[in-house]
Design brief:
- The N terminus is likely disordered.
- Helix content is about 5%, strand content about 50%.
- By secondary structure, it is mainly beta.
- It is built from 4 helices and 48 strands.
Length: about 900
């Protein structure tokens, strides 16, 4: 009896282990070729040709119950011919009336959906993802880095039809091979994954089961077999376009450049050409980005440039291959946006603004013309990823009218940008070695622009290795920079906000006004655990030398810095108690400069949880220790800032509902009563029909800071660093309306009224920036030392009380108001061919008031004469 019991439990254990391994083994789907009568893409299984292949299903739930059977079954079939892959997915549903068929614009992933992912290179690192929403809306993404990056800007031409019946819904797809990349082989094996998202239960299920805690994605795909005797198609796609544009704005009396209207007609060309089986050339000539949404309004009182995300289609699509983050680490740090390539540099606003006479008028270009650009990208069968971007921007001139006499002055030189990126996979992506270089060369003809670099070069290498089923990883990155130019340019670089070599207390750096070049370096080392368990972590060390400079082709705020950080997260992915999932992580990081001085130290904890009613709660708590700030005095000595405590909390309601909302807040309090910052936000989205969505998201920020930089003055050859208390209030409201009449015809509206007011008081000068007590680091001007001149709207300062003005400071109070909006009607009248109608409006005003009165500010803003732009853009896709 005992032996039978042991044998029985042994058999059960063996059965369980077999089930576990069977669940994770590679699945295989074998397709067949159809010629000459492929299926008609109509969303119905009414073509006999589909009988040539078998159904395959047996999906496994991934979320919320990892590894369980799905609540609804899914099955699919795949066929192919010489030119296309055909996919039919049957999404069974026992409650078909509850299928969410949300109509939206392309790449807006909502409602019930199915998805097929194809690793046609079979490199186990990259894939092409095609998503079918039940409404018939299409979505697609380029997947890279083993599923770590999903790029929805990729827009291939493919075909989709969906239908609904009493048993669920269907998706039928035709994917041209010209939109995929694969080698020249007699027989192909491709990676394959099919997924389904059940909207009403927020449930995701996979054909090839991949656990939530898997340390990767693409390398775990199943396999597609049976594709034989197909040839890679050399893709040739041309999209010529024309744009008719008219502008209406306020007429200025006497200004010959502002007569109230301006009209233009232009054209250009976008193209995509398959150079080889593996490499594709994307090109654009005289591009127009008039349909792109406007950047959000900001008031920037820091020493650093505002970072804006890229929205222009040519630069967005395929951007992952050119991504080389200067410090690619998880832990919170100062470097989140820094990258060797920041595409907003191409076509930027002109960098020089001429000084003109009082009675003169100037016509200044808003942006630099992009004469042309191309991107060569692809991945060879040996695992070598290649990316090359080349762009030339025009020499731009401002036209100046002085008493009827016209002249032109160069405001941006003819500039060439080159970006090159290589990455080589080893062992199916377990080891990756890569490199990147950028080059910017300017033809400067105007001596007033000698502050710009004539040449700027950056480069770097990155190495990563994963082991133990890709659970653990190590990453190494090294970078260099070299800029050249006239003395004025390199002096400007040395004294810029990224480094401030002129700081009187910085013994490890100094300004050399005779330099004509500057070089620097940077690097990162990191080690971490990515998955296969609830605990993940990363520890990293990064540095940038004082001379490191990448802002010609890239984006960077800080040089002369060394950073160490450690991040650890804990994930409960399966539902329990009242929760669907719970995530939390803790962080620690510290900064030093190259002199070995500790600049700051920080601790942070974050958490996020979703409840079984589909609501989310997330928040954070942070302590920033005392900071030695090298930039607060804008080139003066380093200043000791008190530490601060902060926390945030945000609540999101169930986004499956036709009405959902969120609200939250953030509060930061500086030690020594130095500052407070409050931010509150809320928002609501309503979807009265499956085709119409409206959202409104207001925010309200309140900042009070004892020390806000104003200016630096000279008195008796001594610098005076002038600061003041600031009370700033900002209100922003983001409005969006989306009306999708069909999957190919949509109307989108974006609008943002923005008001910010800053009131300054208790003006001060810095006296001892590193005194032990915070209040001893500055002197507040008394009534005998400072007086306001209402006629000049300025403050006069008399530091020695001799009744003579030592220097004057313009009133820094401000009220900045701005409204930006875009209305875009988009009609994809045939695959790849689009007609746009765009109306954009902007209004801007500012006064030196400082009093915050939202109603008054809004009334004044909408009394401002608007700048209206209306354009009609037509393009047509040709496949040769």
């Amino acid at each position: 009896m005992k032996k039978r019991t042991i044998g029985f439990f042994g058999l059960c254990l063996l059965f369980c282990l077999h089930g576990l391994f069977a669940q994770n083994e590679k699945k295989v789907y074998t397709t067949r070729k159809v010629n000459p009568h492929p299926p008609v893409i109509d969303g119905f299984l009414n073509d006999d040709v589909w009988e040539r292949v078998e159904w395959q299903g047996d999906f496994t739930q991934q979320r919320p119950y990892d590894g369980d059977a799905p609540s609804q079954q899914t099955a699919f079939k795949i066929l192919y011919d010489d030119a296309n892959l055909y996919v039919f997915i049957r999404a069974y549903d026992t409650e078909p009336d509850k299928i969410a068929r949300i109509m939206s614009r392309r790449d807006y992933f909502s409602g019930d959906m199915v998805e097929i992912n194809i690793d046609s290179d079979f490199d186990q690192q990259t894939a092409f993802s095609f998503t079918a929403m039940a409404s018939g809306v299409k979505g697609e993404e380029a997947v890279s880095e083993d599923g770590q990056k999903w790029d929805s800007s990729w827009n291939p031409v493919w075909y989709l039809a969906t239908s609904k019946d009493d048993e669920g819904w269907n998706a039928e797809m035709k994917i041209p091979f010209s939109q995929l990349r694969f080698g020249n082989k007699e027989e192909h094996v491709w990676g394959l994954q099919v997924m389904r998202h059940l909207f009403r239960k927020e449930e995701r299920s996979h054909w090839q089961y991949i656990p939530q805690d898997a340390p990767g994605f693409v390398h775990l795909f199943g396999e597609l077999h049976g594709i034989r005797d197909i040839k890679p198609r050399h893709q040739v796609e041309l999209v010529p376009y024309t744009v008719a544009k008219t502008q209406r704005f306020q007429k200025e009396v006497g200004n010959p450049f502002a007569d109230g209207s301006l009209s233009s007609f232009s054209g250009g060309l976008d193209g995509k050409i398959g150079i080889t089986n593996d490499l594709t050339l994307d090109l654009t000539v005289n591009p127009d980005f008039g349909q792109v949404e406007a950047d959000p309004s900001v008031v920037n009182l820091t020493a650093f440039e505002t970072y804006f995300t890229e929205q222009r289609p040519f630069f967005v699509e395929g951007k992952n291959i050119f991504d080389f983050r200067a410090t690619d680490v998880i832990v919170i740090n100062r470097f989140n946006s820094d990258n060797l390539f920041y595409s907003r540099r191409i076509g930027r606003s002109p960098q020089h603004e001429p000084d003109i006479e009082d009675d003169a008028y100037m016509d200044m270009p808003e942006a630099t013309t992009i004469l042309g650009a191309f991107k060569l990208s692809g991945k060879t069968k040996d695992g070598l990823s290649i990316g090359i971007l080349e762009s030339v921007t025009a020499k731009e001139n401002a036209e100046i009218d002085y008493l009827g006499q016209r002249r032109q002055e160069s405001v941006e030189p003819l500039t060439n940008y080159i970006v090159g990126r290589l990455q080589k996979d080893f062992d199916k992506g377990s080891t990756i070695l890569g490199g990147m270089v950028t080059a910017v060369n300017r033809n400067i003809t105007n001596p007033n622009m000698n502050v710009l670099h004539r040449a700027a070069y950056t480069g770097g290498f990155d190495f990563s290795h994963k082991w133990k089923d890709r659970t653990y990883y190590i990453g190494v990155k090294g970078m260099f920079s070299h800029v050249r130019g006239d003395k004025e340019a390199i002096l400007e670089t040395q004294t810029s906000s990224a480094r401030y070599f002129q700081r009187p207390d910085a013994d490890h750096v100094s300004v050399d006004s005779n330099r004509t070049s500057l070089s620097g370096y940077g690097g990162t080392v990191k080690f971490g655990r990515r998955g296969n368990g609830r605990i993940v972590f990363e520890s990293s060390f990064t540095l940038r030398s004082p001379g490191f400079e990448i802002n010609d082709a890239g984006y960077m705020r800080y040089a002369d810095i060394i950073n160490h950080g450690t991040w650890m997260g804990y994930y409960i992915r399966d539902p329990f108690s009242i929760f669907r999932c719970v995530y939390t992580n803790v962080n620690y990081w510290v900064h030093w400069n190259f002199a070995g001085e500790r600049l700051s130290q920080h601790q942070n904890i974050n958490f996020a949880m979703q409840f079984k009613n589909y609501w989310w709660l997330n928040g954070s708590f942070t302590h920033n220790g005392q900071t030695l700030s090298p930039d607060m005095l804008r080139g003066g000595p380093s200043f000791i800032l008190p530490g601060n405590w902060s926390g945030s909390l945000n609540i999101d309601s169930d986004r499956r509902k036709r009405f959902y909302f969120n609200f939250g807040g953030y509060y930061r309090k500086g030690e020594d009563a130095s500052s407070t910052y409050q931010s509150y936000w809320c928002g609501a989205t309503i979807r009265p029909t499956d085709a119409l969505t409206f959202s409104m998201y207001p925010s309200y920020d309140i900042e009070k800071n004892v020390l806000q930089y104003i200016t630096t003055e000279e008195l008796d050859e001594d610098a005076r660093y002038i600061f003041s208390r600031i009370d700033q209030k900002t209100v922003s409201v983001t409005l969006r309306l989306n009306y999708s009449i069909t999957p190919d015809l949509s109307i989108q509206y974006y609008g943002q009224p923005f008001v910010s007011a800053g009131k300054y008081a208790n003006m001060k000068r810095i006296t001892d920036p590193q005194a032990a007590a915070y209040q001893d680091r500055y002197h507040t001007f008394t009534g005998q030392e400072i007086a306001f001149d209402a006629d000049e709207n300025a403050y006069n300062l008399d530091e020695n009380n001799d009744r003579a003005v030592d220097y004057s400071i313009d009133n820094p109070d401000f009220n900045f108001r701005q409204f930006r909006s875009n209305l875009v009607v988009r009609w994809e009248y045939s695959p790849g061919s689009t007609l746009y109608f765009v109306w954009s409006q902007s209004r801007t005003s500012d006064v030196a008031d400082g009093r915050f009165a939202y109603g008054h500010d809004m009334r004044d803003l909408f009394r401002v004469h608007p700048h209206n732009v209306v354009l009609l853009k037509f393009n047509h896709w040709f496949s040769l």
